[in-house]
Design goal:
The chain is of the alpha/beta class and 421 residues long. The chain has three domains: 65 residues; 90 residues, Beta-Lactamase (2-Layer Sandwich); 252 residues, 3-Layer(aba) Sandwich (Rossmann fold), CATH 3.40.50. 33% of the residues lie in helices and 24% in strands. It contains 13 helices and 16 strands. The strands form two sheets. It has a ten-stranded mixed sheet with strand order 9-8-10-11-7-12-13-14-15-16, with helices on both faces. A six-stranded antiparallel sheet has the order 3-2-1-6-5-4, covered by helices on one side. The two termini are 39 Å apart. The model has no long low-confidence stretch (mean pLDDT 87). This is CpaF family protein. It comes from Oricola cellulosilytica. Belongs to the GSP E family.
């Protein structure tokens, strides 16, 4: 069905004046599209009843008013990412594997019209002076756009689709992304207000895990989320969402994550959740974790737990504060309790590969201990990663502290001699 819709879109693009498409009322567009769809159905000899034909006409009209050729892909639940390299080349990711599609835009101007529609819907702009933009679709899907002059071959669009069904820890276990024992430990850590950094590379599932972990926070708490482009799917009753704002044409009135974090501290939050820490706001995030907002969470781009600590140190240095390396590390060691490390593997699978506890400082070195991990054992005949989840035998130091809150973690999940389920 998707292939038929793609072909129908091409048929319509060749016959409709795209310049007036957005100016037509829906009823008039239906009148324009109806004879063209009927002609196409007759040519292809599709056996459609009158009602099915009307449904196809109305669906097609909705797609023309939406994001055009991209609409069938956005409705396809098997697609997780849509990647437009240029107007006549579109890839998708299904089950971690990239594949090229038959979808094309009429020309570069058509693609640019869709791009403008996407970014303007969230109050942003894209042009030669602002060629790089982050935005989101109405369903929460994350969008990144690059246009000329930085995009040499014309507009490029990357869409990370928003899951219609919120991810839970149970779904991650079903998908072999983590073990049940890992869930037990992390749920106790979240409920026990341990501050957590979720670390991983691009596409490793950091936002997915952040959403899943945040679902364990009590409805009695006030949560404030801060993101460049809002995509978190928190299910709690008391959630306040904030999003950065790009500068205006004169380069003024930009609102960065650091300003949002400072403002969030004045809004009586119980926890602050930052979609991704990527700059000087790391200092303010750690300050929040250290000053009564325990249990806050954020994500960082890093390939190992130790790398994530180094990244935090570098980002705090970007704030330009008169702090020594030692004082920066003390801030990190006192603020962060756990690092959850994710990895996207070469077969496209995403796994939680390490849960690491920060235990303090020794001399000038932040001390860490791995609690649970994923161990690779090889690949199968289909080149899929094989391995198992296991405990290292080390008990987290915070277990005694959360036990005072009535939170208990069974001792057997820390047994290193058995594979975690």
């Amino acid at each position: 069905m998707v292939a038929q819709r793609v072909a129908l879109h091409r048929h319509l693009l060749d016959r409709i004046n795209l310049g007036v498409l957005d100016t037509l009322p829906r009823a008039e567009l239906v009148d324009e599209v109806r004879p063209l769809v009927r002609e196409y159905v007759r040519e292809k000899n599709f056996p459609l009843s009158a009602r099915e034909l009307d449904d196809l006409i109305f669906d097609t009209t909705d797609e023309m008013l939406g994001l055009g050729p991209l609409e069938p892909l956005l409705k396809d639940d098997t697609v997780s990412d849509v990647l437009v390299n240029r107007y006549n080349q579109v890839f998708v990711e299904r089950a971690g594997v990239l594949e090229e599609t038959d979808i094309q835009f009429k020309d570069e101007d058509h693609l640019m019209r869709i791009v403008t529609k996407i970014v303007s819907a969230v109050g942003r702009r894209v042009d030669e002076t602002t060629p790089l933009v982050d935005a989101r679709l109405s369903d929460g899907s994350r969008v990144n756009v690059a246009v000329r002059p930085v995009a040499v071959d014309g507009p490029m669009v990357s869409i990370r689709k928003f899951s219609k069904q919120p991810y839970t820890l149970e779904r991650l276990i079903e998908g072999s992304s983590m073990a049940e024992a890992m869930k037990v430990l992390l749920v106790a850590a979240v409920k026990g207000r341990k501050s957590i950094i979720i670390s991983g590379g691009t596409g490793s599932g950091k936002t997915t895990v952040l959403n899943a972990l945040s679902s364990q926070i009590s409805n009695a708490e006030r949560l404030i989320t801060i993101e460049d482009a809002a995509e978190l799917q928190l299910q709690q009753v008391h959630v306040c969402r904030m999003e950065t704002k790009p500068p205006t044409l004169d380069g003024k009135h930009e609102v960065r994550q650091r300003e949002l974090l400072k403002n969030a501290l004045r809004m009586r939050p119980d926890r602050i959740i930052v979609g991704e820490v990527r700059g000087e706001e790391a200092f303010d995030m750690l300050q929040a974790m250290n000053t009564g907002h325990e249990g806050s969470m954020c994500t960082v781009h890093a390939n190992t737990p130790r790398d994530s600590i180094s990244r935090l140190e570098q980002m705090i240095g970007m704030a330009g504060l008169p702090m020594s390396q030692m004082s920066i590390r003390q801030q990190v060691a006192s603020a962060v309790d756990l690092i959850v490390q994710l990895e996207r593997m070469h077969d496209g699978s995403r796994r939680l590969v390490s849960i690491t506890e920060i235990t303090g400082m020794e001399n000038e070195v932040i001390q860490m201990q791995e609690i649970m991990a994923f161990k690779k054992t090889g690949v199968d005949a289909a080149n899929r990663i094989q391995g198992f989840f296991c405990a290292t035998g080390i008990r987290p130091r915070f277990l005694e502290e959360i036990a005072e809150l009535g939170l208990y973690v069974p001792e057997e999940i820390f047994n290193p001699s058995v594979h975690l389920r």
